[in-house]
Amino acid sequence: MKTGVFLECLRGWALDDALTFLSRLDVQCLEVGTFGEFVAFEYRLDDLLADGRQRKELLARVEAAGLEISAFGCYGNPLHPDAGRALRQQDRFSKTVELAALLGVSTVTEFAGCPGDSEEARYPNWISMFALDDFAKILDWQWSERVLPYWERAATFAADHDVRVALELYPGSVVFNPRTLMRLRDAVGPAIGALVDPSHLFWQQIDIPAAVRYLGPAVHRIHLNDSQLRPQNLAEAGVLNPVAGLAWTDKTWVHRTVGFGHGVDFWKDFVASAMEIGYSGDLCIEQGDPLFADDDGIAKAAALVRSIAPSNDR
Fold first, then answer.
1. C or N: which end of the chain has fewer Cβ atoms within 10 Å?
2. pTM for this one?
C-alpha cells in the first residue's frame, strides 16, 4: 500500500521544498487541493486547464521527486442556498474533474454539500436528527429538490470523464456517515463513493473498520486523520459543540496527529479492513493537530504508516 499526503497540509511551503520533504519520508502519493487561489501552491486551475505546458511542468516536478498525484480535492458546498456560491463551487468541481481526466488522475474528492430548508433560504440547514416534525420535511425537500438533482448530473459528468468522486463523510454535509453515503450512491450510481476519514467518525461513535467493510467497493479514498475526545469538555457540552476553529481548548474533540488520538492497534485494524475490501488507493495522511507543527506531525504519521502498512513490494 502506498503512503500519501494531503499537500494542503504544507500550505505556505515552496512546492519543490514540500515535494523534497515528502520524498524523504518515503511518501509516494499526493492529494492536491483545487479549492484555494492556487493549485499546488503555484498554479491556477483555469491556467492548468488551458495550458498543456503548465500541466506537464506540474507532473514533471512531482515525478522528479518520486511522487504521483493520486487525487484532486475541491472541497466546498455545491448545494449552498446562495445560488452564486453554489454555482462557483459546482464550476470548480467540474473543472477539477476535467483536470483530473487530463492528467490521468482517477479520483476527485469533495463534500456532498448542504442546502437550505426552502427556496427562500439564505444559509445551509444541516438536519442530523428528527427531534421536531419540521426536520423530516426539510430533509425530504433537500434530497428531492437539491441533493439528488445535482448529484445525478455531477455523477454522470464524472463518469463521462472516467473519474470517481470520493465524498468525505463530513458532519454539516448531507453525506456524513456510511448510510447517507450509500443512500446517495444507490440513487446516482457507483461513480460516487466515500472518502473515509476516521477523524469525524470517531466522535460520531462509528465502528470505523466495520464501516469500511460495510461500504466495501464504495470506499473510493482513505484519509489517515486522527481525533481525540476531551472528557473535561465533553461532560459539559457533548459532541455537538460549536466552537470556533482556533479555540481548540474549548472543544469537546480535537484533531490529533495520527497515532496520538488512537493508538497503533486501531490503525492496524483500520488498514486491515481496507485490505479486506480490496482497497488499492493510497493511505493519505492529513495533519491538523494544534499541538504539532505540520511537518513534524506528517513525519510522525508517515513513520506509523510505514510500520503497519503492507510493503509495496508484496
1. C
2. 0.96
